[in-house]
Specification:
alpha+beta, 8 helices
């Protein structure tokens, strides 16, 4: 038995405490499709990545110290204020704000989509695309949100909606507690591969993505495939506008772990289906 399997079994038996999950945020980017359908943006993690190499993911990543500093600094933004996000997420004001800052920062760093605009921008208008957004804003000695404020820009929290919360199974050594957001890509912007962490970007309807997954293609982690399956079902009757206005249940979802006779384990989706880890060609 490998060290990894021994540690996993110790966690399952209650002899070892699971690793505390790290806060993270991810954004499901949507755009109008053909015939009233909508499409979702997926990035493929580069083969060089230590975590999730080859998997198709939504833009996102861990909340970092600068996101927390921005939350403590109470930097202004457009849209629902931190108190409302705190109520949605069931956390403190600062904790909720750090998720929003992280979501905007990670989306820009990974896809080039900047959910920000001039501080005086009206709530119902498109986002502004500042000079340099297509190639990355010049670095300065400050956090991302503070850098935006320095350039007369502010986070457009009104473009984001809370969607779900997933927690990495307790048997994993690297765990995340991830808040999922949903946003429609502003009409003046086009997502692209903006980070060496990814090597491909695709657009497809949620139903197409699920079909690829079910056929053994488009490798994804369980939260991604389950989110797409949910969006595919909603797309039968929902439009982009109604998707953004859905009232969401944001309770944490942690996939169950089922042990098999050969001492291997398999993850179980919330509806009881077993998740088969994808085979990724190297």
């Amino acid at each position: 038995m490998t060290d990894g399997a021994s540690w996993r079994n110790a966690v399952l038996a209650g002899h070892t405490d699971p690793v505390a999950p790290r806060d993270s945020a991810t954004v499901i980017l949507l755009r109008p499709g053909v015939g009233g359908a909508f499409q979702v943006c997926l990035l493929r993690r580069a083969a060089t990545m230590r975590v999730g190499a080859g998997l198709y993911v939504f833009p996102g990543g861990a909340v970092d110290a600068e996101d927390v500093d921005d939350a403590r600094a109470c930097l202004p933004w457009i849209g629902a204020q931190p108190e409302r996000w705190a109520a949605w997420f069931g956390v403190s004001r600062e904790h909720a704000a750090s998720f929003v800052y992280s979501a905007v920062r990670e989306t820009f760093e990974e896809s080039g989509v900047l959910l920000a605009g001039p501080a005086t921008h009206p709530l119902d208008g498109p986002s502004a695309r500042p000079e340099g957004a297509a190639t990355g804003l010049p670095p300065v000695d400050r956090s991302f949100a503070a850098m935006l404020a320095h350039r007369g820009l502010t986070v457009r929290a009104d473009l984001l909606r809370p969607w779900s919360r997933w927690v990495t199974p307790r048997t994993e050594r690297k765990r995340f507690d991830t808040r999922f957001f949903v946003a429609v890509v502003p009409p003046d912007q086009e997502p692209r591969v903006a980070s060496p962490e990814s090597d491909r970007l695709v657009w497809m309807t949620p139903a197409e993505a699920v079909d690829h997954w079910d056929a053994g293609g488009l490798p994804m982690a369980l939260p991604t495939s389950e989110t797409l399956r949910e969006l595919a079902e909603l797309s039968r009757t929902a439009t982009l506008d109604t998707i953004l206005e859905l009232r969401r249940d944001l309770h944490p979802v942690e996939p169950a772990v089922r042990r098999r006779a050969n001492d291997s384990v398999v993850l179980v989706a919330p509806d009881g289906r077993e998740y088969q880890p994808p085979r990724i060609a190297r």
